[in-house]
Design a protein that fits this description.
By secondary structure, the chain is α+β, with helices and mostly antiparallel strands. It contains six helices and eleven strands. The protein has a single domain, classed as Protein Transport Mog1p, Chain A. β7 and β8 form a beta hairpin.
Length: about 200
């Protein structure tokens, strides 16, 4: 269930933030109210996946994307945009996934490859600016990464990601924010506040 302190995916009148949370997944993040939010249905409409894949995604995943651009679009999401964009997501793992799920898989949730792998480093796909192991209460653990990710066009996305899994490896939680390097430098304070506001609580 997605909820906010006033209405789902909306800012309270006069406040500076969208207060976005999933009650069932016990996760919360605070995003500037001037930024545009996109819910699961928006994300699925923009996806080219099959109906079966979309149905499974909606059953297992909670997601909210956000875009700071004056003319927001999901096409900007985690690209070398001139304005910050990002995604907060919780995925429930299938039993077959849990059997082999690793920290490398956790780091690969959104990028589709492990940015810390030798292959990614050798191919020049990514520059790792910082990588920190994260441990939180209730057995939550994972990593926080700051990356320069190179697109196929050779552009750079400065990418800040935290990805966590619970002690039972039944759910994964991820927050990622990015934009081009100049944009990131200009908005670093706001980005850090969003990252710091992201809370995940184990039952």
């Amino acid at each position: 269930m997605v909820a906010a302190s006033c209405t789902a995916l909306s800012a309270c009148g006069g406040t500076q933030y969208h207060y976005v949370k999933s009650t069932s997944d016990r996760t919360f993040v605070r995003v500037p109210s001037k930024w545009t939010l996109f819910n699961e249905d928006d994300l699925l409409k923009a996806s080219d996946d099959s109906v079966e894949t979309k149905t499974l995604f909606k059953k297992l995943t909670w997601s909210v994307a956000f875009d700071a651009a004056p003319k927001p679009s999901l096409e900007h999401l985690l690209t070398p945009s001139a304005h910050p964009t990002g995604l907060v997501q919780v995925r429930t793992l299938l039993p077959t996934q849990r059997d082999t799920f690793s920290l490398a898989d956790l780091r690969s949730l959104l990028l589709s490859y492990d940015p810390l792998s030798d292959e990614a480093q050798a191919n020049g796909e990514v520059e790792v600016l910082d990588a920190t192991e994260v441990r939180r209460g209730g057995g939550l653990h994972g990593s926080e990464l700051l990356l320069n990710v190179k697109t196929e066009a050779g552009e750079i996305v400065k990418w800040h990601q935290i990805a966590l899994t619970d002690a039972s490896i039944s759910k994964v939680h991820v927050l990622a924010i990015g934009c081009n390097e100049d944009c990131y430098s200009a908005n670093e304070g706001v980005i850090d506040k969003i990252v710091d506001s992201w809370k995940v609580k184990e039952p």
